[in-house]
UniProtKB/TrEMBL annotation:
Protein name: Mitochondrial peroxiredoxin PRX1
Domain Thioredoxin, chain residue ranges per copy: 5-168
Organism in which the protein naturally occurs: Moelleriella libera RCEF 2490
Family: Belongs to the peroxiredoxin family. Prx6 subfamily.
Keywords: Antioxidant, Oxidoreductase, Peroxidase, Redox-active center
Length: 219
């Protein structure tokens, strides 16, 4: 079990079956951003709504150079049938891979198993995989880890928002404030000295020496 995956860790490689065939993870994501997000089980209500939402938002992730990969602790055959249900119920057409992880091999590698909830057990008495989100950059470095319990569905728009924040902070020397969405002002990174800040960001607004806002060029 990985156990020690942190922001800044190399994303572990794995090979696994999926609804689109065998996936070598590192090969598949080569040169792209990637989001690996896990699900406890196929044919479950919250997961069905989540996958439909991710499927509908996939073009937005693609625009940002992000490949989506779901993972669910069931087989490829099961995923295939479930994907038809997801389309019927949500109108979302899942085209990205859903990793088949019935034995929790990838879930253990990515520490996607919780241990606090003893009722969190699936049909075959294995611990359920929780709802984890790993955002991985083109250097295969883990940049964001988010974990939710089975009872709480994620917010696909929020995950898109944090991709925008990561990509903006990689491009410019900035950070993004609370509830930021693209188009709003950002915070100049504290590592940028006062003179450089004025040069880099002509519309700099200094609220405090440590809190300096600027607009970003519109994409
Ligand atoms: C769900 O997706 O609805 C779910 C999955 C596993 C346990 C509980 C709920």
């Amino acid at each position: 079990m990985a156990g020690s995956l942190r922001l800044g860790s190399q994303a572990p490689d794995f090979t696994a079956d999926s609804n689109v065939g065998k996936i070598g993870f590192h090969n598949y994501i080569e040169g792209s951003w990637a989001i690996l997000f896990s699900h406890p089980q196929d044919f479950t209500p919250v997961c069905t709504t989540e996958l439909g939402a991710f499927a509908k938002l996939e073009p937005e992730f693609t625009k940002r150079g992000v490949k989506l990969l779901g993972l669910s602790a069931d087989t490829t055959e099961s995923h295939g049938t479930w994907i038809k249900d997801i389309a019927e119920v949500t109108g979302g057409n899942v085209q990205f891979p859903i990793i088949a992880d019935p034995d929790r091999v990838v879930a253990n590698k990515y520490d996607m198993i919780d241990y606090q909830d003893p009722t969190n057990i699936d049909r075959s008495s294995l611990p359920l995989t929780i709802r984890s989100v790993f955002i991985i950059d083109p250097k295969k470095i883990i940049r964001i880890i988010i974990s939710y319990p089975a009872s709480t569905g994620r917010n696909a728009t929020e995950i898109l928002r944090v991709v925008d924040s990561l990509q903006a902070s990689d491009k410019y020397k900035i950070a993004t404030p609370i509830d930021w969405v693209p188009g709003q002002d950002v915070i100049v990174a504290n590592s940028v000295k006062a003179d450089e800040a004025k040069q880099l960001f002509p519309d700099l607004r200094i609220i405090k020496p440590y809190l300096r806002y600027t607009a970003l060029p519109q994409a």
